[in-house]
Structure formats: structure tokens, C-alpha cells
Amino acid sequence: MTHNFIDTVLIVDGASTAAYLAPAFRSYGIRCAHVISSPDLPALYRSQFVSSDYVREVTHDGDIERTLAQLRDLNIGAVLHGLDAALELADTLAERLGVANRNPLESSAARRDKVLMNERVLRAGLKAPGHFSSQSADEIVAWARALGTLPVVVKPSRSAGVTGVKVCRSLGQVEAAARDVLATQSIYGQPNEEVIVQTYSEGQEYIVDSVSFDGHHRVVSLWEVHRERSHAPRLDKMVVVDHTEPRYRAVLDYAQKVLDALDVHYGPTHLEIIDTAEGPTIVELNARLHGSLDPRLTTAVSGESHVSAAVETVLTPERFFDKLNRQPVFNGFCGHVLLLSSRTGRLRKDFSWDAIQALPSFVGLKQWAKTGDPLSVTTDLRTALGTVGLYSKTFDALLDDCRQIRDIEEQFFSDAEAVVQ
In terms of Cα–Cα distance, which of 241, 92, 82, 264 is closest to 160? Predict the structure, then answer.
């Protein structure tokens, strides 16, 4: 393989975990440019951009020619993106800039839109939920009624962060969920114009974090995911497992076939799968880095993170192929735990951050709520207090700290003065 030297990497919406990309590339002497996908991108994400990480920053105003004109002189050799909403723009820029290693633009929408995604997976002969989509809540209810079996899952066709996702066990819940989707915006500030309703998949959920090059796929981490699956399927915790164990083979084989079906040739992906009694089935693909992660955790466990693997694959695909069939060595266990609010009102007291940080397996903390902030009962990432990163040499010790976190939350919210109306 002839080594291809890259001068500049373009990052579209370098927020969430993608905020680590530019510093990582710069450590190799690679310049990075930044495109902000919309002038209306919510402040939540704009506040995560570090302009000094980039040699140029461009805000895309919808005029693709104007954006391209501001980038063509940079000799861009790779394009990556950080947010789901940026995927199609990133694919378009890679195509128009003539980037050699890119995913096909003609299938870009299927890597973003859950309806097109599901249909493409089914056409490939792979297991996927039954589904129906519409811009009418009444039609969504009619499909669920005709299905005759509940529960079903209702969500925006371009959902992200489980916002707007509901597990519905009655037709009344189906109608309310569909109307709520159509009346709200996504976490990226875009209107939800279409609803998808799917059959419910029962089983253990996994997240497969991979990197791809030239149509080959390498697993970086396999996460075992635990959710509250009553009505709003918010995250409880997720822990990394040893994906080399034979019991995960069917899940990983299925994941590779899904990536092929969705034309993932290059870049990092984050694929959610339910391992049902009838076999693995897709929840959704996010053709980007796994969001809101602390890269130190998986680095401690297996020697790499989704970020380091993505950067290394772009810069040295030779190493990607060297590692493709090499078994990783696991050293300990790590996990991410969502911090949950059980009450609605205004946070009157500072949360028990010190108790969280005192846990034996504590590594890092992202605090999203502070004294004086409004609180809701946690149903998704936006209504959580924050996230905690944990690492331990033993799995039992890791799980014990996960339980301790729930005890800390319960004790805090049992104080009547902690939250006021």
C-alpha cells in the first residue's frame, strides 16, 4: 500500500467527542479546518467548538458553492463530522472536494434517515424492525392498530440522543408520542417533519463502535447497554465488554453486514443493535464517533479509543489493516453512567458531585446541571444531570460503583429542599 500524506482534515461540527479530533490530528502535524453546518445550530453545540484548533472556520449558510469556495485552497485530504445533522453536508463536501476516501453520496441519506436506513437493511436480507412512516399522527396510529401487537417504538425519522423516542404500550401513547414528535424540534434545532413507528425489539442492547477503511470494518469497542425501557428509553449505563468472546460473534457479524448494506466504506461509526431471541436487529446507525465519551476509558481498557482509532485510520491505513485480524488485549473494565433526576422543579442545592468523585472507579465527570437550573425527570440526555466515567480492574467493582451512584441520587433527591417548584 502506498502511503498517502494528508495536509488538511476538514471537520464538520467538531462538537461532542469530535472536539477531540482536531487536537489529535494537530499532534501529527496535520492542519484542520472547520465547517459549522448551520448558523442556527443550537448554542449547546456551538459552545463546544474551539476555533483556535482550526486554520479556518466556515459557517455553512445553505449555499454549497459559497462554502466550497472557502475551502478549495486547503488541499483537504479527509472529511469527518461530529453531529448526525452534519452527515449529508460532510458527504457532499467530500464528494465535491474530490476527497479520495469517502462514502458514496448517493446513499448518504440512508445513513441518516431512520426510514431509509431500515428499508436498506431489509433489502439486504438482514433482520430489522417492521416500520411505517408518515407526517400524520392519525396514520401512525392506524398502522399501530392494524399491527395488532404492542408495544411499538415511535420516534422522529431523524432522531438523535433518544430525544422524542417513546416505547408505546397503548394506542393513546402512540398518538401522543407521534403528535409530540411533529410539534417539536430535534436536538439540532431542526423541525421534526416525519414520524417513524417500529415494531418493538426485545433483548440485550449493544453499541458497536467501529472504524472503516476501503469497505473493511474493525471493531474498536463493544458496549453492553442498559436502559429504562418503560416509556422513554433513556440510558441507565453502558459498559465495555470483551468483544473477542465467542458469544458476541453473531452481533459483530450482523454489524459488519449492516455497515456494508449502508455503504459505509470509510470513517468511524456507532451502531446500536438489539440481540433478540430471533437474532440481532438494528436500532440505528450513527455514521460518526460515539458521542459524549471520555476517550481515556477505553484507552485504559484496550489501548485505544474511538477517537484515536479514527485518527490512526485516516493517517495510517497500513496500521488499520495490521490490526484488522489482531486480537486486542483487555486490561480492566470501563463504563459510562447517566446521572438521573427523579424530580421536576428548580435545583436549589448543589448536587452530590463530591460523593460521585469519591467513588473508587471514578475517572471523569460531565456536569450538565448546576444550582438554580430547571430540572425535569430524566428521559434523555438533555434532561440528565450529567455523565460519569468509571474504570476498574474488576467488573464487580465497576458494577458496585454503578449501584452506589443510584444510591447517591436517591439520597440527594429524598431531601425535600434539594428541588423547589
Answer: 82
Produce one character per residue of 382-420: b if its CB has 16 or more CB atoms within 10 Å, e if not.
ebbbbbbbbbbeeeebbbebbebbeebbeebbeeeebbe
Residue 35 cell numbers, joined = 465547517
Q: Could you please report the per-residue DSSP string of 63-127?
A: -HHHHHHTTGGG-EEEEEESSGGGHHHHHHHHHHTT-SS---GGGGGGGT-HHHHHHHHHHTT--
More confidently predicted of 260 and 383: 260
Distance of CA 390 to the CA centre of its chain: 19
Q: Give the predicted TM-score (pTM) of the model.
A: 0.93
CA-nearest of 400, 126, 401, 395 to 245 is 395
pLDDT for residue 302:
96
How far the first Cα of the chain sits from its last, in Å, is: 64
Distance of CA 261 to the CA centre of its chain: 19
Confidence of residue 229 (pLDDT cuts 50, 70, 90): confident
Strand 152-156 to 166-168 pairing = antiparallel
- According to the model, what pLDDT value does residue 189 have? 78
In angstroms, the CA 259 to CA 85 distance is 19
